[in-house]
Design a protein that fits this description.
Number of strands: 5
Distance between the termini: 37 Å
Number of helices: 2
Bound molecules: guanosine-5'-monophosphate, zinc ion
Radius of gyration: 15 Å
Shape: globular
Order of helices and strands: HEEEHEE
Oligomer: single chain
Helix content: 10-25%
């Protein structure tokens, strides 16, 4: 595993995506979120640091719908490896910070991971949906 560095330009964090051994739809080649993280694909980024990037979902399911994404290309929740604990801790920290930033911390919000077909996962780069700004139904459909 290694960090791919990109040049700082147009406000894009020079961290890029971390290499992963997987290929095909689960690999980082042609991965949409790796593209957004590296700046090759346009994204409405609301937060970025060394390990985590957060950007607005292009098809929001709530008034606030932000994707919290580790820079490391991890295809699904099932692909977490020993040593990834810090990344997940960072994701939760960023989710709380962004919730404060966009004004949904007090009213409440939900942090959701879809894993696999039955959950409807469509992008195979681990991401957490931060949803809020309205009363969210439970249980989810
Ligand atoms: P999943 O279904 O894998 O849990 O979530 C994927 C999310 O990515 C969906 O909510 C979808 O709307 C969002 N998405 C798909 N394509 C794009 C894109 O090009 N840009 C952004 N910002 N979000 C996207
Ligand atoms: Zn990726």
């Amino acid at each position: 595993m290694r960090i791919v560095l990109t040049v700082w330009s147009n406000g894009v964090w020079p961290g890029g995506c971390w290499k992963s051994g997987q290929s095909g739809v689960r690999g980082m080649e042609n991965c949409l979120f790796c593209g957004i993280i590296s700046g090759k694909v346009k994204g409405a980024i609301v937060h970025q640091d060394e390990t985590v990037v957060a950007f607005k979902d292009v098809n929001p399911k709530a008034p606030v719908h932000i994707l919290i994404v580790p820079r490391k290309h991890i295809a699904t929740l099932l692909d977490l490896e020993p040593g990834d604990e810090g990344v997940i801790e960072d994701v939760f920290r960023v989710a709380a910070d962004v919730a404060e930033q966009v004004g949904i911390a007090k009213s409440g919000f939900r942090l959701v991971v879809n894993c696999g077909a039955d959950a409807g996962q469509t992008v195979f780069h681990l991401h957490y949906h931060l949803l809020g700004g309205r009363r969210l139904g439970w249980p989810p459909g």
